[in-house]
Amino acid sequence: MESFIVFLPLILVMGAFLYFANRRQRKALDATISLHDSLAIGDRVHTTSGLQGTITAVTDDDVDLEIAPGVVTRWMKLAVRGKIEDSDEDTDDTVEDTSRDVESSGVELTKD
Fold this sequence. Notes:
The chain has helices at residues 2-37, 99-104, and strands at 44-47, 52-58, 62-68, 71-76, 80-83. By secondary structure, it is α+β, with helices and mostly antiparallel strands. A five-stranded antiparallel sheet has the order 4-3-2-1-5, with helices on one face. The longest helix has 36 residues, at 2-37. The termini are far apart.
């Protein structure tokens, strides 16, 4: 009986750990299932391997992704990791010329 009392806290801690680990896994699985159920043609997604594409077709187990204009590949739904949300800002690859800002600020740059 004494040995049971000694191991009771250990058993309780391990039981709590298993409960919370299972709960976290279940939440992740539910989020993945809801993502796969919400996939629709035209959605931008990325896969578990890092590939980005636009969905052109959806079946029960597969999605067709257009990864370049005219290039469509078939993937398992399980490979889709998440949707790519469009941002409100334009993401141009332009570089702004800030040299005028430095000159007009009155700061003099000299080399010692």
